[in-house]
Design brief:
Blueprint lengths: L12 E7 L6 H19 L8 E7 L2 H13 L3 E8 L9 H6 L4 E5 L13 H6 L2 H14 L5 E4 L5 H22 L1 E5 L13 H8 L3 E4 L1 H9 L3 H14 L1 E2 L1 H4 L2 H23 L2 E5 L14 H8 L3 E3 L4 H14 L6 E10 L6 E5 L14 E4 L11 E4 L5 E10 L4 E10 L13 E6 L3 H10 L5 E5 L4 H11 L2 E5 L5 H9 L6
Parallel strand pairs: 1-2, 1-3, 3-4, 4-5, 6-7, 6-9, 8-13, 9-10, 16-19
Antiparallel strand pairs: 11-12, 11-18, 12-17, 13-14, 15-16, 15-18, 16-17
The structure holds manganese (II) ion.
Length: 500
Amino acid sequence: MTTPRTNTLGRYEFWFVVGSQNLYGPQVLAAVEEHARAMAAGLANDPTLPSPFVFKKVARDSNDILAIFREANASPACAGVITWMHTFSPSKMWIAGLALNRKPLLHLHTQFNRDIPWATIDMDFMNLNQSAHGDREHGFIASRMNLARKVVVGHWRDPEVRDRIGAWMRAACAFADGQEKKVVRFGDNMREVAVTEGNKVSALMRLGWTVDGYGIRELERSVAGASDAEVDATIAAYRERYAFAPEVEADPAALAAVREQARIEAGIRAFLEERGAGAFTTTFEDLGALPQLPGLAAQDLMRDGYGFGAEGDWKTAALVRAMKVMGEGLPGGTSFMEDYTYNFEPGNELVLGAHMLEVCPSIADARPRIEVHPLGIGGKADPARLVFEAGAGPAVVATMLEMGGGYRLLSNLVDAVALPEPMPKLPVARALWKPRPSLKASARLWILAGGAHHTGYSSQVTPEMLEDYARITGVEYAEIGGGIDPRALEDRLCGNWGSR
Ligand code: MN
């Protein structure tokens, strides 16, 4: 299995800001700082946290706090701020700083010691270790100011606490990356399709996504400009990563088709790199002089960490990129996906997911195979593509919807399963899964929620990361197959019918 490496999580860091106040005097403040440094050192070495955990400061007054948030806002490396009130830190001191904070916020409700030292505890100990009430004062002001944040509760050495922080860091890095990397669109959306449309100004304001369109002529020029050396290097990467089907090896025309895809890939890659893009879309309705629909090309670019959306679907392209960042380094993979067809067999209800061609090989259960076959849509030459099955196991599918009044991020937990029988006449990459809690309940809720046919599919990303991402970006989050009762979710999704 190949794992995409976007190498993004290590580019960012998270600032640990510990609240106190001058009232306690230098001795207590020195102890607070010593504890904070020990905690940061312990957390910094934990591989559960994907990015550096940096102790910033013990904040003693409103000027300290204002300075920290100003500095955080100005720092491109800082992807989020983690606060903890070791002692009581009166929250009116925090208002000015929190009001101008633009970074994702996590409130870590912990304490330095795990256990109460029953035999030795005295009022000095109580005076120093009072986050149990200091953090409540901090929570109040954040709620009073209506600030979105994640609250994580537990001892800082607790692995479960570190998992919660790690998931949030991944979501925060995806948000930071989404503000920096552009989404490039080759051509427009598939004509008449509604769900892939959207307001690109809203997307930039709310999600941080810059979405720019380019005429297919510009891509044609980039593809034509790809050097033979670049095409050779791309073919060499194919040879290393994938198996060439024997029919391809034996057929000079098929090998030439693979080379055409490599040229298309080299052209797209150069175009994206030049523009600092992290995701792209294509549409089969506007391929200009490209000889084939980008199949293998789109698949291999996704493997390298690019987000992708077919038929001009830029929201899914950007979401796939965000999910690739969230999942970076974790086992499994992340892909563009489409619910294609069902198995309604009683007791064995399944979704077969695939696309015309563009599914990422990071989710493959074995070495993907390069094949060349005709494609009934788009009117172009037979495209080269990777053929494989997705690995079995838990996964999540997610979609970002624009509902007019705002965005809704919708997810569904699924369990990918092995094919019960071979499908020798279907030469495309595919995934087969059982949605939770069931196909009937999942698809009904998905459709009631307005969920799209395109999704990001991931065996790396957890629903927690998606929920954290939704909190950070300020969009509605709904999850199917998780802890929420389907009836309660339905009431929430449909409770305001008629008001949109
Ligand atoms: Mn599609």
